[in-house]
């Protein structure tokens, strides 16, 4: 025997599976039907038909529209009170233990800016002060365009752009 999982979405599928399993196991065929519950759609259709039947008997046109049941109001959910965060006592450790805990990150220099930051700085100068001011900033680094800059020049170019923006 092998385990099997079957996903069924409709009572007719269950009937078919039961018939197939019964035939496979050599069992005599037993008629098997499930009682079906009316679906939401069928219930809505029945209510609509009832309303229409009543409307044909009524004399005024306002009775032709079936009454829509009122939707009950949803009760408000009470707010959960905020809990006070637990504070832990500071852990005391030596410098070597702290460096080990930081995996050497404390001794690394800050990350260098990338070309995207340089490009934004140059565009900011060009927008605020004009193209000539941006070309002057790039000229200080002996380049005519941003892509000609070397990565080690990026921080200097950003600083020069900030100076140009602050200069009157």
Shape: elongated
Q: Major β-sheet, in short? A: none
Specify the helix fraction band. Answer: 40-55%
Element-level helix/strand string: HHHHHH
How far apart the termini lie comes to 87 Å
Number of helices: 6
**Mean residue pLDDT:** 74
Oligomer: single chain
Uncertain runs: none
- Class derived from helix and strand content: mainly alpha
- Rg computed from alpha carbons, rounded to a whole number of angstroms: 39 Å
Percentage beta strand: under 5%
Total strand count, please? 0
Précis, in short:
By secondary structure, this protein is an all-alpha fold. 45% of the residues lie in helices and 0% in strands. It is built from six helices and no strands.
